[in-house]
């Protein structure tokens, strides 16, 4: 220990009143599906109870004024002619970054295609292992330093010469690409029984999209939502997702996911599905809907299991994140997972994102 030096715990930089407000406001925008007015109303109520900024001279009105000055909000004309405030592109980016930090931690940007497979050979990322040169190895992979040392040891300084047996190459790993489809259940059951399951699902989608953008830019992520039907959405639409008066057409979601992945050229493909686990709807070939909200319908379940098996034949693993605790529904997910030979994770809402990150990283090397 140094004499005359006193150490104290590092507390970090104190957040400004604006930053304290912003932390809460970003969360409220997700809960209100991007409704700025509703988020501000909640902000005022929370400020009354908890004094968010800790500064009597900085209140919600000042924060709202600063948001406009900093370009975090923009004005939009509604269909009825009224002007409303909506999040700007900059605010949407901050929401994605916030979700990434909350769920996945702080990650630094690395070169594109940054995931290692278990396959050695001619690749584009240097490894630590050396092996003897073999015909066909590119010259650029030869480790000249070690090869010269081998030649010196084998032939001596006086009769120095390099033979093929002296040459060694450094192993490389292939940087592979992964195409992922993230399916989000937006059926009415995602907000039933006093549980908000859709907000954590939105956070995961935002964080996963930001993760791929900054760390794996060669990868692709497609996001789809499914209720009575299934349709793709953009990253920019995620904060504004709302649960609808829908049943759960899991088959339609899987069919759309497969159609998307068929068009992707990446060698590795996978589906993540966030759901409460109860399929209750099908769209028939004549365009009509078959629905059954009571229990697990054998006809609907059978179609779901067929889709799971089809994905298995196409070598598309499905990882299902089950966010309901009903053992009856968990039995269906177990059968579904067995048909696909994928994975099922029965998780609470708090650790949903952490498990998705873990599985996303693992699935990159699953088939290689």
Automatic annotation (TrEMBL):
<protein>
    <recommendedName>
        <fullName>VWFA domain-containing protein</fullName>
    </recommendedName>
</protein>
<dbReference type="Pfam" id="PF13519">
    <property type="entry name" value="VWA_2"/>
</dbReference>
<dbReference type="InterPro" id="IPR002035">
    <property type="entry name" value="VWF_A"/>
</dbReference>
<feature type="domain" description="VWFA">
    <location>
        <begin position="180"/>
        <end position="278"/>
    </location>
</feature>
<dbReference type="InterPro" id="IPR036465">
    <property type="entry name" value="vWFA_dom_sf"/>
</dbReference>
């Amino acid at each position: 220990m140094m004499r005359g030096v006193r150490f104290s715990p590092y507390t970090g930089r104190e957040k400004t009143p604006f930053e304290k407000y912003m932390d809460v406001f970003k969360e409220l925008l997700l809960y209100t599906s991007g409704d700025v007015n509703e988020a501000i109303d909640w902000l005022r109520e929370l400020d009354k109870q908890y004094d968010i900024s800790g500064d009597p001279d900085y209140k919600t009105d000042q924060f709202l004024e600063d948001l406009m000055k900093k370009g975090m909000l923009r004005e939009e004309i509604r269909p009825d002619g009224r002007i409303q405030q909506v999040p700007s592109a900059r605010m949407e980016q901050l929401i994605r970054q916030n979700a990434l930090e909350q769920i996945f931690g702080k990650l630094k940007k690395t070169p594109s295609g940054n995931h290692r497979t278990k396959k050695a050979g001619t690749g584009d990322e240097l490894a630590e292992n050396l092996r003897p040169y073999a015909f066909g190895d590119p010259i650029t992979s030869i480790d000249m330093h070690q090869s010269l040392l081998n030649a010196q040891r084998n032939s001596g300084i006086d009769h120095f010469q390099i033979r093929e047996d002296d040459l060694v190459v450094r192993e490389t790993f292939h940087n592979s690409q992964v195409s992922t489809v993230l399916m989000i259940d937006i059926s009415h059951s995602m907000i039933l029984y006093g549980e908000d399951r859709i907000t954590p699902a939105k956070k995961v989608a935002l964080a996963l999209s930001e993760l791929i953008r900054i760390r794996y830019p060669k990868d692709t992520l497609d996001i789809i939502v499914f209720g009575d039907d299934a349709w793709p959405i953009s990253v920019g639409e995620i904060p504004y997702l709302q649960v609808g008066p829908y049943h759960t057409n899991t088959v339609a979601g899987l069919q759309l996911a497969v159609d998307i992945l068929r068009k992707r050229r990446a060698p590795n493909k996978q589906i993540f599905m966030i759901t409460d686990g109860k399929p209750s709807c099908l769209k028939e070939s004549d365009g009509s809907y078959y629905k059954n909200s009571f229990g697990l319908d054998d006809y609907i379940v059978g179609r779901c299991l067929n889709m799971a098996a089809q994905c298995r034949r196409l070598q598309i693993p499905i990882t299902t994140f089950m966010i309901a605790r009903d053992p009856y529904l968990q039995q269906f997910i177990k059968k579904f997972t067995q048909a696909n030979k994928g994975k099922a994770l029965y998780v609470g809402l708090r650790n949903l994102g952490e498990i998705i990150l873990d599985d996303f990283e693992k699935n990159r090397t699953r088939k290689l």
